[in-house]
Amino acid sequence: MTYKAPLNDLRFALHTHAQLPQILALPKSAGLDDETVNAILDEAAKFAETLLAETNRQGDLNGAKLVNGKVVCDPVIANAFNEFRDAGWVGLRASPDFDGQGLPMTVAAACEEMWCSANLAFSLLPMLTLGAFEALHHHASEAVQQKFMAKMANGEWSGTMNLTEPQAGSDLAQVAAKAKPLGDDTYAITGQKIFITWGDHELVDNIVHLVLARLPDAPAGVKGISLFAVPKYWVEEDGSLGAFNHAQAVSLEHKLGIHASPTCVMSFEESRGYLVGEAGRGLNCMFTMMNHARLGVGIEGHAVAERAYQHALAYAHERVQSRAIQSDSIAPVAIIEHPDVCRMLLQQKATLEAQRAVYLKAAAALDVAESHPVPDVQKQAQALLDFLIPIVKGWSTENGTTLTNLGMQVFGGMGFIEETGAAQYVRDVRITAIYEGTNGIQALDFIGRKTAANGGAVAQYLLDEGRALAAKLPSDSPLVTQLNQALDLAAESVQYVLAQFAANTPNNAAAGSLAYLMQFGFTLGAIEMARAYLAAGQALENESEQVLGEDFYRHKQHTVRAYFDLVLPQVLGLHQQVIRSADSVLDYPAAALAL
Amino acid sequence: MTYKAPLNDLRFALHTHAQLPQILALPKSAGLDDETVNAILDEAAKFAETLLAETNRQGDLNGAKLVNGKVVCDPVIANAFNEFRDAGWVGLRASPDFDGQGLPMTVAAACEEMWCSANLAFSLLPMLTLGAFEALHHHASEAVQQKFMAKMANGEWSGTMNLTEPQAGSDLAQVAAKAKPLGDDTYAITGQKIFITWGDHELVDNIVHLVLARLPDAPAGVKGISLFAVPKYWVEEDGSLGAFNHAQAVSLEHKLGIHASPTCVMSFEESRGYLVGEAGRGLNCMFTMMNHARLGVGIEGHAVAERAYQHALAYAHERVQSRAIQSDSIAPVAIIEHPDVCRMLLQQKATLEAQRAVYLKAAAALDVAESHPVPDVQKQAQALLDFLIPIVKGWSTENGTTLTNLGMQVFGGMGFIEETGAAQYVRDVRITAIYEGTNGIQALDFIGRKTAANGGAVAQYLLDEGRALAAKLPSDSPLVTQLNQALDLAAESVQYVLAQFAANTPNNAAAGSLAYLMQFGFTLGAIEMARAYLAAGQALENESEQVLGEDFYRHKQHTVRAYFDLVLPQVLGLHQQVIRSADSVLDYPAAALAL
């Protein structure tokens, strides 16, 4: 269960799919060069592979517990966080104005893949902290920012997001927690929140909770929700910690996976906090971070599957079982020589490389949208990012379950035994398809705000990119036909979705919405894999460009072919599901689904 | 987490897909009529729904443990087994010559679906016992049969199958356990076996272990393996129990699921036993039961998914969240009204009904093959059964993971919490794709012995059935086009597989073998769903045939449409994977998968 950071593929993907040189030319990248990026990736890899990866199984075995009102984590987790903080990793992409390192998301995303592969449950602590940091950065008053943010970026304190209540899961309009003005600039927050990741723990001195709640006389629905920053311990004017603020975990959930991370039921009892952003604009404040958070969850789903793949690959080399069917020898062989086992590994590897390409493309769009000097370029990048987010989140995490299960299958009977470790990846990854908006919610977002609302313009832009790449591929390559067919089918699905919204029958599109999201994910994967094929071909023609060694580029071209043969064909069925689901689903007699 | 046996659909499927009247006309069904079958199903449903279903969560929470050398099960499991045995369920399909009830497999299979839905881990105890019973029935000497079998059929004792050793998982040629002749008709068996389901426990007075081992001077490979019956306690000539026979669990595995069932590392130390069948023919003796066992595992995968579906359906009615997107009202609705949630439920329901049709078709073929008076009919049924087995096993259990995960997804965040119960189905079902021959092994069997070895004759026979059904469907129905397209693609895949074996390049077929198995599974599901559509249509035209109520038949036709729209389209991609995988997989450079 060792982990080896896929540094070569990360480097290739950063240049090919995220166009790193352009990211390094952004104002926010001032002082950063390729060499520094490489050094950062190397250091991150070292940390992930050694200290962090080794905590994964122990953290699963000895999950977080609530003992006498305190959340207790395994010592290896606490120790890993100390080292992580001391090495300066928490604030890698946080603003330098508040003790962060200010790295572009593109580079930070590559590091986040490594943290998530090494220990998903652990990685949620810095990820949530940065989410809260970003919310404060965009919306809090300067006084509040000064009070909290630097200590969050350097990892002295952590941050949480308190949205969900039992009756308000996906539908935040139902939030009921209350906020009472105390007459000064503070409020007393009271309510219970559920599913709060790293909601309470002893790894840091203080925790800054961002809490959605309603002011007195707030209107019903989303417009009555405001956001508050509520510290676990009150922070005095001099920055010292004051009294306990009655923000605490009252129980922890028993979960299928990510055991090392406490998932808390949080209770706030007249807990003092500050308003963040305008009253009644709480949801908007949360939406600011949604792209970051959903991109992060997509990376999580991808990263756990990457580790599951590596684990299965190692076993497939080591395990000797059964003769090769197309051989005269009866000697048993390593199972990687059995075609179906090799197929499973390639399906994993090819999907993972496509996912890495897509999430880094999205991360690059985020950086350009945030800091490109030309507003029009920013705007275009923002539209691209908005479109890519539900794909990265939904597609990578649906695949997460498929791929980790393939990993387990390679182990045969040993895969079902917990000590083997394959089961943990299957368990851990499962949450990524659910939280931060279930994939069903992502799919709704994708058909509506991301496709119909812009008349399919961004979808068309990406399909045009695909056409241009197809035109550059060797004309006799089967990749051309496969890619063009996938682009045709995707275009048909886009038209179908647009037509439903135009006809005011969005339910028709909703019935096939997950299939549409998945179809576009696999198609976008093919577009980026075609880009990779061409980039690798260019390197193969020009020895000076072979910075990763000739073999890397040859292998990449083979992996692209594997993606087109083993993975991309799924779009054929998905396309049918997009256009056919409406009748079956919407005409289905309710009585046939009655209890 | 209640369970409601799908009695109406079972009855419909027994008549439509298993052609129950023909089964009841077999010699082995003497004395059995439709009314009795209905009464048996009703009683089985009652037991499954009440007593057994209620043990499922407790058995998961308090799994089997090894305490001071004894395997300890939760009392609810022990109690359930007592009731199950006392009600006479263990030997339902065991030969009446040995205290069994001798019911046809077709009827027993319907009951087994209910046991497996109610508590998969529990159901393995009678299932394994019957497997051992069958092996003895076919291969043991009369003396051995008289000694063991009646007490196995009535549940006083249980049985196990001891095949796997650490170095011999799928490849039984590597079995190393030793058998030493003791000079009388007994042998001393020594060795260690792993993954032995219900290998040891205190729920019965004695356990009959069937153990693969090698006689002295046996040749290497499979021809040196013999089968032995080794009781936990020696059985004296008068039937009384003698000394402990040094057959015991030395440890239990920690598994992802099926916690209530002990999965044992078994140690045999000079344990006395009888040879079963001829020396050196041990594997053949095991193969006798393989169709039963693999059919059983297919039913397991299906049954767990059925319960997960019911669980999700209930929650989708109960959980109110978010407004309907195609509505003027902002009031939140039950989530079943959201199209994507309804789509998930229909995908589950439609797949489940197709799977039920296919496993009952296979069970019927088994009965006909075993006891039809006309040898040619028997032979044809045996060929059909042999072909269907890897589909029932592989297709239903691959779907098992997909469907239980859909069930969990319906729950959103609650699905990830163990108390909800959705996670248990995901965990439990996972083993079914692995044991009794991984699905990769099933797929190899399917391309080779089941397709190529008979020149595709059985495949063609089934596709012809499909053509005939397509011709009977209303000609303006979209089902016709969809079914014919699926049949065309399946025929192409069969031809591809045959061509590879003819060209002596079976590796090419092996690379896409799982896709081929899945493609044929979904196609066969469509064939049987078309049959269901027609049968339902006939009932709708003729009130006297509406024994399940008019609504049932209307709903069935809707579910068939859902199968064709939401499930069947997967064959498009699978077909491409069948014919495209070879190049990508077999040409892939080994160095690119090096560690």
UniProtKB/TrEMBL annotation, chains A, B:
| Highest taxon of the lineage | Bacteria
Is Oxidoreductase set as a keyword in this record? yes
Required cofactor names: FAD
The segment(s) forming the Acyl-CoA dehydrogenase/oxidase N-terminal domain are 36-156
Keyword annotations for this protein, in alphabetical order, are: FAD, Flavoprotein, Oxidoreductase
Q: Where is the Acyl-CoA dehydrogenase/oxidase C-terminal domain?
A: 280-444
Q: Which residues form the Acetyl-CoA dehydrogenase-like C-terminal domain?
A: 477-588
Q: Which residues form the Acyl-CoA oxidase/dehydrogenase middle domain?
A: 161-269
Q: Which family does it belong to?
A: Belongs to the acyl-CoA dehydrogenase family.
PANTHER family in the record: ACYL-COA DEHYDROGENASE, BROAD-SPECIFICITY LINEAR ACYL-COA DEHYDROGENASE FADE5
Write the protein's name. Acyl-CoA dehydrogenase
